[in-house]
Amino acid sequence: MIRLQAVTVTGRLQDISLNLTSGQCVHLIGANGAGKSSLLTVLAGLLDIDSGQYLLLNNAINTYQPAELAYYRTFLEQDYHCAFPLTVAELLDYYSGGSHIDDSLAAALEISAFYHRPLTALSGGELQRVHLARVLLQLWPQIEHGQALLLLDEPLQGLDYRHQHQLLTLLNALAIKGNLVVMSSHDLTMSFDYADRLVLLKNQRLLACDTVGELVESTRLAETLDCRVHWLYDSNGRCAVRTEPD
Ligand SMILES: Nc1ncnc2c1ncn2[C@@H]1O[C@H](COP(=O)(O)OP(=O)(O)OP(=O)(O)O)[C@@H](O)[C@H]1O
């Protein structure tokens, strides 16, 4: 679905080559400033590249009109702010075209309890769940057909553990339908459990792109994050990660 060839954005991304196919959850891992948000913004077609090539569905990204792009991909930005004094229902109605919110989405994000409240009267995590619903509703018909590109910048930000698991389970189910999910994460334990593939970024360059299984036992994660990474397994093979400064 996505093919990047030597993509550079001056000061933000250096020489990134990457192929990502549909039907998987890809987690972008890297320290602050590594280039995760920049890469997601390029993938969304919202940041011009200075050199290289980006093909989305075999077409150069700059051949798409904004309305066409909005049909294929949705993008959760880290710092989105709604400038209008809307309620949750009004915002989501606008993005869904007034259609019914799918049961799987409603169950994962649990927004019904504050559906009629103003956006300004929500907690940080509640607001994050509303924005997740917003970006998924923008493309829900394409998502249901497994044809969408979901770009999510730190979607776990502000969510409690239960909602983190519910969201990641939903995203895995959407990937199984055929969608491509690309999200940034600072939580290696969650990525171990839910990512199909990790993209490791360091100093705006690509260090590795491989399956979680391949990368867990390598030194690449420690190199990416500039700290020691220890994987702690329980008897069921479930794992948690512990990090230490180098
Ligand atoms: N709007 C911008 N204009 C110019 N440079 C930027 C801009 N936004 C980010 N940068 C720079 O681009 C580089 C990559 O930043 P980016 O936001 O992509 O990192 P990140 O991996 O998402 O970091 P974080 O984990 O802190 O969110 C950094 O050096 C940053 O200072």
Automatic annotation (TrEMBL):
It is an enzyme of class 3 (hydrolase). The keyword Nucleotide-binding applies. Keywords: ATP-binding, Hydrolase, Nucleotide-binding, Translocase, Transport. Pfam families: ABC_tran (PF00005). It comes from the Bacteria. GO terms for molecular function: ATP binding; ATP hydrolysis activity. Residues 2-228 form the ABC transporter domain. Its EC number is 3.6.3.34. Part of the ABC transporter complex HmuTUV involved in hemin import. Responsible for energy coupling to the transport system. This is Iron-chelate-transporting ATPase.
